[in-house]
Amino acid sequence: MMKTLVALLLLAASAAAQDTPDRSREGDPSRPERSRDGDAPRPPGPRDGERPRPPTPPPPPAPPREGGRRPIPPFNADEVRGWLRENEPETSRRLNEMEEAGRREDAQRVLAEASMRMREQADLKLRDPKGYERMQEMRRLEREGMELAERARRVPPEEKEGATKRLLENLSKQFDLREAQRVLEISELRRRVESLEKALGERKANKDRIVDKRRRELMGERVDEDW
Predict the structure, then answer these.
(1) Which is the most buried residue in 15, 19, 60, 141, by most CB within 10 A?
(2) Is pTM beyond 0.70 here?
């Protein structure tokens, strides 16, 4: 009788152990969750009741770097060719060779660069007529020097000394004119430096007023002076 009772207790304990679910597997993030029908794991994704997050947009493209070449404004190619024939005959000759050889991109680049020089000279003529005259004289002497050098290379030996002398005179004039232009540029730079030093001294003397003015600007107050 006692043996029968012990056997029944052991059978009951074994059945209870089989019916108890395995709690150790619940909440384990490394184990995939199963769907309700128990056939296959649930794919990764948002949990029930959560809205899917929108994809992160790509960063905007970086702005172009500054300090590159200046954009060249539109120009009249025939007008630039005429300016080159009058002011830069050597460049005009090279341009004709490029166009005859079918090098269109190179020819277009030469025209674009020449158009910028043409504009700069036009601005110089309005801003500084005397400086424009000096520039024109330098260009004239350069053209003349190239012609004299070409002539000195081709003359017979008995004429080479005279041709060389005329070339040296031309080069001496070019040198003097260039040095005079450099003296003017140095004088202009010195004047600008003196003006900047004067402005710097005035700002230092008025530091408190300038700083207080900037403070009022940052605070949203209206000011009439420059920072």
Answers:
(1) 141
(2) no
The pLDDT-based confidence of 87 (bands split at 50, 70, 90) is: confident
Single-letter amino acid, residue 151: R
Cα of first residue to Cα of last residue in the chain, in angstroms, is 109
Residue 60's φ and ψ, nearest 5 degrees, are -65, 155
Query: Which residues have a Cβ under 8 Å from the Cβ of 114 and sit 6 or more positions away?
Result: 80, 83, 84, 88, 91, 95
CA angle 198, 202, 204 (to 5 degrees): 115
Where is pLDDT greater, at 70 or 89? Answer: 89
Average pLDDT over residues 7-35: 50
Q: How far apart are CA 114 and CA 70, in angstroms?
A: 14
* pLDDT score of 90: 83
Residue among 130, 167, 132, 131 at smallest CA distance from 148? 167
**Residue matched to tokens 């005429």:** 82
Cα separation, 145 vs 161, in Å, equals 15
Average the pLDDT over each of 47-56, 89-98, 167-176 and give the range with the smallest value. 47-56
Helices (H), the chain: 2-19, 77-87, 89-100, 104-127, 129-154, 157-205, 207-218
Radius of gyration of the chain (CA): 44
